[in-house]
Amino acid sequence: MRHQMTISALAVAFGLVAPGYATAAGTINVGVVGPLTGDQAEVGQEMINAIKMAAEEFNASGTMKGTTINLNIQDDLGNPNQAAIIAQKFVDAAVTAVIGH
Questions:
Q1: Which pTM value belongs to this model?
Q2: Could you report the per-residue pLDDT of 6-56, keeping only the tens digit for each?
Q3: Cβ-proximal residues to 10 (8 Å cutoff; 6+ apart), any chain
Q4: Domain, as residue range, for 45
Q5: From start to end of 1-100, where are the E strands?
Q6: Domain holding 11: CATH number?
Q7: How many distinct structural domains can be found in the chain?
């Protein structure tokens, strides 16, 4: 049930941002940030795995023909200073949306 809700939420979110923010190639760049290493790595890995699964299912579904989700996954180590650096990376990479804690 939780997995299905996550997929539904991501599909709705991608659907809302996609029409105006897909690149010329039909790719929506989404930043994903979480603690992938360190003390909170287990929680971060579970979050990343769920987001990857949802993006793969969205891409395979053909819901928005010609549009795919590209995930830009970053490890913030659970550190606010690292999170700020990653936020700037996302700005520089012109990601459409950010998913994370």
A1: 0.73
A2: 555 555 555 545 445 555 568 999 999 999 999 999 999 999 999 999 999
A3: 51, 54, 55, 58, 99
A4: 2-100
A5: 27-34, 68-75, 97-100
A6: 3.40.50.2300
A7: 1
